[in-house]
Design brief:
Distance between the termini: 65 Å
Strand content: 15-25%
Order of helices and strands: HHHEEEHEEHHE
Strand order of the largest sheet: 1-2-3-6-5-4
Shape: elongated
Largest sheet: 6 strands, antiparallel, barrel
CATH class of the largest domain: Mainly Beta
Number of helices: 6
Number of domains: 2
Radius of gyration: 22 Å
CATH topology of the largest domain: Pnp Oxidase, Chain A
Helix content: 40-55%
Oligomer: single chain
Length: 197
């Protein structure tokens, strides 16, 4: 069976809308909302005023959120990486996980803030040993971790102020990330002091 261009255009528009709904449910974000609007608008246009250009229009319009997603992700990651970043090698129940996170020097031991997947957060909160790589040096650390949402406000404010002081304008990249790309619903924000073993 050969599909005509209108059928392909409808498929692209419908798939765009479905993917946007899934992203909105999972993580939200301006780009997912805009993608849903594009998908619905394309379906309405194709349905109400079909033309020979619907396929090209569908392909062209779908590239907008894809480019926005890629561009935002690239900007945020490249901005984060201009500050001091450490690597954590974390053993989880589902396998090893590597995270690149910012580090703060509050107190005797380094402290990290990580908006982690639930499986990784579970490992951190359980205090399982992990490997820390900082400035090329590898050490085994025991995380003393707490969910950020249960920390007293004064402590969480101290952490965010220290992050703002050390990383400056780079912190705004995180705000852009969450605004544009959203935040996965299974994420758990954790702050962990990495104590030497």
């Amino acid at each position: 069976m050969i599909l005509n261009s209108r059928s392909v255009a409808v498929f692209i528009a419908a798939l765009t809308a479905v993917i946007a709904v899934i992203l909105l449910i999972d993580r939200g974000g301006v780009i997912a909302g805009g993608t849903l609007a594009i998908g619905i608008a394309l379906l309405a246009k194709i349905w109400l005023k079909p033309s020979d250009h619907d396929l090209a229009l569908s392909i062209g319009m779908v590239t907008i959120p894809v480019l926005a997603w890629v561009g935002t992700f690239y900007y945020v990651i490249s901005t984060w990486e201009t500050g001091e970043v450490v690597e954590l090698y974390i053993d989880t129940d589902s396998g090893d996980h590597t995270a690149r996170v910012w580090v703060l020097d509050i107190g005797t031991y380094p402290l990290v803030y990580y908006d982690a997947e639930s499986e990784v957060a579970k490992s951190l909160l359980a205090g399982k040993p992990l490997q820390l790589t900082r400035a090329g040096e590898v050490s085994t650390r025991i995380p003393k971790a707490t969910r950020i949402d249960v920390l007293p406000e004064a402590e969480s404010n101290l952490i965010f102020e220290a992050m703002e002081t050390k990383y400056g304008d780079r912190v705004g990249a995180a705000d852009i990330y969450y605004l544009m790309l959203g935040r996965s619903r299974d994420r758990v924000a954790v702050v962990a002091t990495l104590i030497e073993e």
